[in-house]
Amino acid sequence: APTAAVPPKFAEGVRVALVRQLSSGDYFEQWLAGAQAEAESLNVKLEISSGDGNNDKQALNLEQAVNQKADAIIVDHGFAQTVQPAIKKAADAGIPLVAFDVDPGTPKAVSLTQDDHKIAELALGALKEGTGGSGDVIYVYVAGFAPLDRRNEVWTQFKKDNPGIKEVAQIGVVNNSTASAVADQAKAALQANPGVKAIFAPYDEFAKGAAIAVKELGLQGQVKIYGADISTADIGVITEPNSPWVATATTDPSNVGRIAVRAAALLVAGERVAPELKVPPALVTQRQLRDGGIAGIEQLTAAVPALTTPDVARVPWAAS
Ligand code: SR1
After folding, report:
1. For ligand 1, what atom is nearest to the CA of residue 251?
2. For residue range 12-21, what is the model confidence (pLDDT) as tens digits?
3. How far is ligand 1, taken at its centre, from the CA of residue 203, in Å?
């Protein structure tokens, strides 16, 4: 139940600009759906733009949000060098900011992340168990994306700690058809390295692409995939008969979108928000999904309530 009255500004109408780097793919679609649902329940008008992978376009969209004096701005992904100049302008103009998965370069912005180190640790724990701690592994990574860079730090340390694990190929691309591009690369890497036991693919579009490659080559009995993120479509891929994707470390993406909007709303209301918000992930395994008869995200969050985090950036005037 609400513990505070709705701030007057929220009755008048609050405009929050959501400035995205990427928008295609299950993760980003679910994240947006969560953000939109939370905005609607808080009476916030979300003004959404996407760079569609074009960093200059994202920077322009961000400049525009600053010039149009949004009540708050959420920057969703992006490369530090392209978004930080406009973030600084927003901060100097006193516009509250939430930066998700991008380094804002200023302590004035609230930094929202998933616990990416934990995501990688959970997935790699499963990989270690599945491989017995040794074997050839293909790694899927693209540098420059803050969450992937943090997961990469864990992978780098994991290889040092587990000398039996050998990275035989690194592949990766992020674009509007990431899964199919990664599928082509994974197929070539698997053909060049016939002994591969596992693929570490810590982004669901990477894992989906890797799964396509393994299936096309008929290697399901030999190669297992350890991924990140989840969606109802991903659950379908993980649980289909003979699927090579055996584990994924994940938050609920729509919950993260909700948190971003709650944090922005709190800042608009002048409420205190912790400077760093970190959303904890959970490991979800193929066995758990199959045994639990879990076919979609709603069933998953019911089975794993830790994926729902209502106390992160709780809004005191909201009904729930
Ligand atoms: C291209 S970056 C993709 C990642 O962003 C979010 O952190 C998701 O977890 C996804 O894996």
Report:
1. 9
2. 889 999 999 9
3. 6
CA 28 to ligand 1 centroid distance, Å: 8
Q: Is 229 in the pocket of ligand 1 (CB under 6 A)?
A: yes
Q: Are 23 and 62 in the same domain?
A: yes
Radius of gyration for the chain, computed over Cα atoms and rounded to the nearest angstrom = 20
Closest Cα partner for 244 from 296, 204, 208, 195? 208
Angle of helix 55-67 relative to helix 80-92, nearest 10 degrees, comes to 0
95 and 155 assigned to the same domain: no
The 8-class DSSP code of residue 306 comes to G
Going from the Cα of 178 to the center of ligand 1, the distance in angstroms, rounded, reads 12
**167 and 216 share one domain:** yes
Q: Write the ipTM.
A: 0.99
User: In this predicted model, what pLDDT tens digit does every residue of 16-43 receive, in sequence order?
Assistant: 999 999 999 999 999 999 999 999 999 9
Indicate if 70 and 160 belong to the same structural domain.
no
Q: Which residue's C-alpha comes closest to atom 2 of ligand 1?
A: 145
Whether residue 290 is contained in a domain is answered as no
Output the CA 263–ligand 1 centroid distance in Å: 20
Instruction: Look up the domain containing 203 and give its range.
Output: 116-250
How many domains is the chain partitioned into structurally?
Answer: 2
Do 246 and 138 have their domain in common? yes
The alpha carbon of 116 and the centre of ligand 1 are apart by a number of angstroms equal to 9
Beta strands 245-250 and 276-279 are unpaired
Residue 148 and residue 245 in one domain: yes
- Among protein residues, the one whose CA lies closest to atom 10 of ligand 1: 203
Q: Do residue 188 and residue 228 come from a single domain? A: yes
The torsion angles phi and psi of 120, rounded to 5 degrees, stand at -65, -40
Does the beta carbon of 174 sit less than 6 angstroms from any atom of ligand 1?
Answer: yes
